[in-house]
Amino acid sequence: MSGEIDQATAKLSEFEKAKSIDQLQQAVEAMERVLHPGAATATGVAAARQQQARMWLRLLAAMEQSLDPKFDPDDVPEVKAIPPLSREGEQLHAMADARAIRDPAARAQHEKILKTNREKAERYRFQTRLRRIEPHIWADVEGYFGRFYTSSRADRKEVDGLLKSVTLSAARKEKLRAIPAKKQPSE
Amino acid sequence: MGVGEEVTLTFSGGLATWNATAGKLSVQAPNTADHVIWTAPDRAASPVTITATGAGCTATVSFNVVEPSGVRQQRNPGTGIKHTVNKPDSGMKSTSYYLPDDVCFYNIETLEDEVNAVDTGVYALMTDKGHHPSTTPSTCSMTVVAGLGTKENATDTVYSGYPAASPPYAPGSRTFNIPTKFCVAGGAWKQIELVVQQHVLANDGASLTSSKAGASTPTIKVADPTSNF
């Protein structure tokens, strides 16, 4: 296995644990550094192609499975919150320090609102960044299959086998099956 | 192009070898493809040249890449003014935008840094001076508005608060000069500018306004009835 594929595998594993888009981005960048299958020597061209294609599909699947179909980009997060009125009659400003709230119950109530806001902001950020990276991964995968697979029976069988090994939407699998079909073996 | 902005480039001659003087090319090694996605670098650069060599020729295209140069805000349409009857408070819900308005900064993230308020008059009685912003960066949308720039994916709350005091109130203001910074997602942070958020009780001791980065509340009076966003 090439060093870049090892790196991509490790970064993908980190992404799946920590759900950090930076890790997914780094996995994609590692795969983009992998030399095309024709340059393979140690594992042979056919094995290198299959190994690279499988890794690209794993990245695509990880991205797709993380997309939240209920995500609403118009439901933007609130970045600040107003603390409750103090018993002394002071109304702190938006984004005052929660520690400035003397009443423990009021402080806990405010911290709960801040936590809810923070979690929503983190989910929103994750889903937004995921949608930004999606076209890059798709362009890479589409480019790979278009370039290194043909409409030959052997290639179509290999693509079918690869697609069976990953969890991807039926629509995306269909698109991927159609890519090599456009390219004749002699091209 | 804005920092982090992307463009799909196609070489009409078929397969080509691509190179860029800055930014990132989404293409598998050794940089050969008939089309690529180029991502602008995360800092200003002029010009960035991308070349595609294939079919016996070389094609080039150049872009100037700019960073966010300023922050603007707009009050959220359909929202009200927050105020408490006989208290010196005012506030609004708003959204930030990033200039210039001839590029799109959809791939930047932004944060406000901590800063203490400069309080005078009645606001000097406030016990908490800090501005303790969210630690989760805000993302930006693909919406660009003329005169404002790229719209942020977040709602801001601009609100003064009020001290434990009774009228009459000494005229004064609270001013936050908020360091506002950007990064291209996952990159290093850089300050855009100090954004001024200000809440004023005018010299008449009755008129209140809140403003931030070009957005402002209409003038209200201390004695106006309680209202919310």
**Could you describe the largest sheet of chain A, including whether it forms a barrel?**
none
Largest interface: A-B, 49 and 51 residues
What is the oligomer described by this structure?
Answer: heterodimer
Form type of chain B: elongated
> How many angstroms does the end-to-end distance of chain A come to?
28 Å
The structural domain count of chain B equals: 2
How much β-strand is present in the residues of chain B? over 45%
The residue fraction in helices of chain B comes out at under 10%
Poorly predicted regions of chain B are none
Could you please describe the fold and organization of this structure?
- The complex is a heterodimer of chains A (187) and B (229).
- With 187 residues, chain A is mainly alpha-helical.
- Helix content of chain A is 64%, strand content 0%.
- Chain A has one domain (3-181).
- Chain A has helices spanning 3-18, 21-32, 45-66, 104-148, 153-164, 170-181.
- The two termini of chain A are 28 Å apart.
- The model of chain A has no long low-confidence stretch (mean pLDDT 90).
- Chain B is mainly β and 229 residues long.
- Helix content of chain B is 0%, strand content 51%.
- Chain B is built from no helices and 21 strands.
- In chain B, the strands form four sheets. In chain B, strands 8, 9, 10, 12, 14, 15, 16, 17, 18, 19, 20 and 21 form a twelve-stranded antiparallel sheet that branches. A four-stranded antiparallel sheet of chain B has the order 4-2-6-7, with no helix packed on it. A three-stranded antiparallel sheet of chain B has the order 1-5-3, with no helix packed on it.
- In chain B, strand 17 (172-184) and strand 18 (190-201) form a beta hairpin.
- The relative contact order of chain B is 0.20.
- Classes of the chains: A mainly alpha (187), B mainly beta (229).
- The interface between A and B is large, with 49 and 51 residues.
